[in-house]
Specification:
With about 450 residues, the chain is α+β, with helices and mostly antiparallel strands. About 30% of the residues lie in helices and about 25% in strands. It is built from 15 helices and 21 strands. Strand 18 and strand 19 form a beta hairpin. The protein binds flavin-adenine dinucleotide (FAD). The site of flavin-adenine dinucleotide (FAD) has 38 residues, from strand 3, helix 6, strand 10 and helix 12.
């Protein structure tokens, strides 16, 4: 229950319509996409905030935070709620701070976009494309997810094959943050070192008010789908294409059969033939060139879309079948499927895939997204797993590691149990900016 004086204060700050304590809305919005994980579901189901508050300006944001800190009320930030790790779920009630009204593009030129926290990424991409630029990379949830939600909770996506991830220097140029103190401080982070307490901080260190993304010149992307009879050939072909520095790619997304059978739209379009492994490609490559390369590898081009239709409303987007959208299609087809976030060593890709197959057979299906990880071309995976038990998942993780693979466990909501967390800079940010521990409590094992 929220203190009635605090509720009145919040209504005065943002207006009564922007403070919601309706039980159904509280339950609906106090969730992210943690339900992807059968382990997280029982841990997080039923957790809810006491009210949802939506400030529209930096001044309102600071006043909301000050009121919360004065009354020692927990604050959980929410963008679009598409995060997968449960870190958008309020574990101790309090305020769910929605950025839905902080949605303005403050400035945008060919090199960078400065946007408020709740700006949807698709708006940045559209505005950038209108002036011949584009986002360096974005999550496959580009249509709904927000600027701050992505840098605080996301990693990468289409475009990461060229530009890396949120952790790589030069991609996120800066942010304005607000501290959780009774007189909140507004701090501009403009250096890579300063950003490390903010990137992938999952709402635990500070509240992000705005973000500056680096942009890159737009490319005339074409989309293609290739079907392979043999998965080993598909692995070799896609790894060679990923490493071919003469070809610009935005997406190379490889799916072992039967994953393609889950992509209902592609099946309907005849792009996912029975029994074939699929490589989804967004690249600066003509149909002739793709067909030539495919033919020499014994593969078939099953679908193509020219650049003129790229990201046009009503047209297919291959990114809708990539990254964690793949898992979504799979879970719709078979509710026993879940996923793992793993990565192969590109020089041992086929060997590691086969070694895991030998242990798990089709209980683990290989799904690879090629991306630059710390500057190295990496076949990162969101492998699909036929879920049996938590112990099975933990054993699978251990087995992958024994095989020399890298794994980030998506079945924990504790930030410090994610191997990708920034460690000391996050602990430093927490100590400097959230001295009372009010930001998103319950999502760190070490606190
Ligand atoms: C189908 C599907 C596909 C996905 N594909 C990808 C992908 O390709 N790449 C990828 O990286 N992720 C992916 N994700 C995960 C998720 O969509 C992204 O990380 C997304 O960018 C999160 O944005 P959001 O606005 O929904 O954030 P939310 O889920 O609302 O928030 C994410 C985290 O950020 C915190 N946060 C939000 N706003 C603020 C703020 N203003 N200040 C401080 N903290 C804040 C929240 O508390 C939470 O911990 C996918 C998820 C789904 C369901």
């Amino acid at each position: 229950m929220i203190d009635s004086n605090l509720l009145t204060d919040l209504q005065q700050i943002v207006g009564p319509d922007n403070v919601v304590d309706d039980l159904k809305k509280l339950n609906d919005l106090s969730r992210d996409c943690y339900w992807y994980s059968p382990v997280l579901r029982p841990e997080l189901d039923g957790m809810a905030a006491d009210c949802i508050v939506s400030p529209a300006t930096l001044e309102e944001l600071c006043a909301v935070i000050a009121a919360a800190v004065r009354t020692s009320t927990p604050i959980t930030c929410r963008g679009a709620g598409t995060g997968n790790y449960g870190q958008g779920v309020p574990m101790h009630g309090g305020i769910l701070l929605s950025t839905v009204r902080l949605d303005r593009i403050l400035s945008l030129d060919a090199d960078k976009a400065h946007v408020q926290a709740g700006t949807r990424l698709i708006e940045i991409e559209r505005r950038a494309r209108a002036i011949g630029a584009e986002m360096r990379f974005y999550p496959s949830t580009i249509i709904t997810s927000t600027a701050a939600g992505f840098i605080a909770g996301g990693a990468g996506g289409p475009g990461s094959i060229m530009h890396g991830t949120v952790w790589d220097e030069g991609n996120i140029l800066g942010a304005t943050i607000v501290t959780a103190e009774s007189t909140p401080r507004i701090i501009q982070a403009t250096t890579y070192a300063g950003m490390r307490s903010i990137i992938h901080s999952c709402g635990l260190t500070c509240i992000i008010a705005d973000v500056t993304f680096a942009l890159t010149p737009a490319v005339a992307w074409q989309q293609h789908i290739l079907a392979f009879e043999d998965f080993d050939v598909a692995l070799t072909f896609s790894a060679a294409l990923a490493r071919d520095t003469k070809v610009k790619s935005r997406l190379l997304s490889l799916h072992e059969w039967p994953i393609p059978s889950y992509f209902v739209q592609l099946v309907k379009n005849g792009a996912a033939p029975d029994g074939k492994h699929l490589l989804l490609i967004e690249a600066e490559m003509s149909l002739d060139e793709v067909t030539r390369r495919a033919t020499s590898a014994g593969a078939t081009v099953t679908w193509h879309q020219p650049h003129a239709d790229y990201h046009k409303t009503g047209k297919l987007k291959l990114s809708d079948f990539s990254y964690n959208h793949t898992t979504l299609w799979a879970m719709k087809a078979d509710e026993n499927l879940t996923y793992l976030q793993d990565a192969f060593d590109i020089s041992r890709l086929t060997e590691q895939h086969h070694a895991r197959k030998a242990i798990y057979g089709d209980d683990v299906l290989t799904h690879i997204e090629f991306l630059k990880w710390g500057g190295v071309m990496t076949p990162a995976g969101l492998s699909l797993v036929r879920f049996k038990s938590k112990d099975q998942l933990w054993k699978l993780i251990a087995d992958c590691e024994t095989l020399g693979m890298w794994v980030a466990n998506p079945h924990t909501h504790k930030l410090d149990e994610d191997v990708r967390w920034n460690g000391q800079p996050i602990l430093d940010g927490k100590a400097m900016w959230d001295p009372k521990g009010l930001l998103n409590p319950g999502h760190m094992a070490g606190l």
